[in-house]
Amino acid sequence: MLNNPIFLIFLSIFLGLTIGKIKIFKFKLGVSGTLFTGLILSWLSSRHLTSVPTSLINGLNSYFKFSLILFVSSIGLIAGKDIKKTFKIYGLKFILLGFIITSTGFLLIFLTSFITNFDNFHLLGLFSGALTSSPGLATALENFPNNSKIIFGYSIGYVPGVLAVIFSTYIIPVIFKNNSKKEFENFSRKDFKISEQNPYYFDFLGYSLIVILGLIIGNIKINVKIFDFSLGITGGILISSLFFGSIEKIWIFNFKFNKQILKIIQNFGLLLFLSTVGLKSGYYVINALSFDAFLLMILSFVIAMISITVGLLFGKFIFKINTLILTGSITGGMTSTPGLAAAIDSTNSEEVILGYGATYPFALIGMVIFNKILSYLFLSY
């Protein structure tokens, strides 16, 4: 059974979700527990196998790519429904905020590569870990398939990144003690509501078209001076799903997918992604734990806090965003679902979801773009 990728994937999902439910104070791993159980299972399996079978590696790679398609397409389709509305009501505020937070993390990682001796691949993974972005990790691994150092950086940086987001959600309401509930009255909750369709409706014809065109877009090579650039699976699928998600129907293709079904696909894709990532690299990651790993954890927390602080300053004093909405926007800019749960708890209000939903898709796009840029910058020197 140690050679069976399906068995190992679902075992890591089962164990990961079980561990993810354990709550310590305000923190729990949630679905991210799947990554860590995958790492442990991989490490344990490697101790009983003289060599990792090629069939197992190929199987995990296939499921990894399939998980990207499910995860990214569902995110894009959900976000695509609100993009026009966000532009119309709030202009560029949430768009800029998503890019400001992710670009701050990008610049800090890039500067760190010059002033420290950390491995660039560790830092590339740490970028996605500190900003708690699974799609960011997916983009990095597309550029460097099966790179265990990237997964190590992400794994080391993820928990400090989540802790930074959770910490900030409890600090923001304390710093800004204005009457957020009264201030929120200037915002319209109904503006963000999405009309629900038939709860069982899902057009597989339209979905297949989105995936096909996304894969074609992702494989287009763009020559830019010193390197060839392509969007890959992540970027291509994201663009395709965002575009078609913003429209309802073309000819015989219906793109008005039910949101709850998309959420299920998103969660399943994320579980597949995290488990395969862990299973592919557990032996290296666990055996690479050292004092440098501890320093990387501290670095991750610092990068996360600086990125959050910059986003907070822009959001509050330049964009004048309501405190409740801003709290959610920070978690969206950090693409952190655990952070959103903490924000709801700290503010005792679900209005924070609006800020999260408005900022998240643009932070996601930012993570894809900046991971691509970092990858090529690290290759060039």
UniProtKB/TrEMBL annotation:
Belongs to the AAE transporter (TC 2.A.81) family. This is Putative transport protein. PANTHER family: K(+)_H(+) ANTIPORTER SUBUNIT KHTT, TRANSPORT PROTEIN YIDE-RELATED. The keyword Transport applies. It comes from the Bacteria. Keywords: Cell membrane, Membrane, Transmembrane, Transmembrane helix, Transport. The chain crosses the membrane at residues 6-22, 29-50, 62-80, 92-115, 151-176, 200-220, 226-247, 268-287, 293-314, 321-344, 356-379. It comes from Thermosipho atlanticus DSM 15807. The keyword Electron transport does not apply. Residues 9-172, 208-374 form the YidE/YbjL duplication domain. InterPro entries: AAE_transporter (IPR050144), YidE_YbjL (IPR006512). One of its GO terms (cellular component) is plasma membrane. It is a multi-pass membrane protein. It holds the Pfam family Asp-Al_Ex. It is found in: Cell membrane. Its main location: membrane.
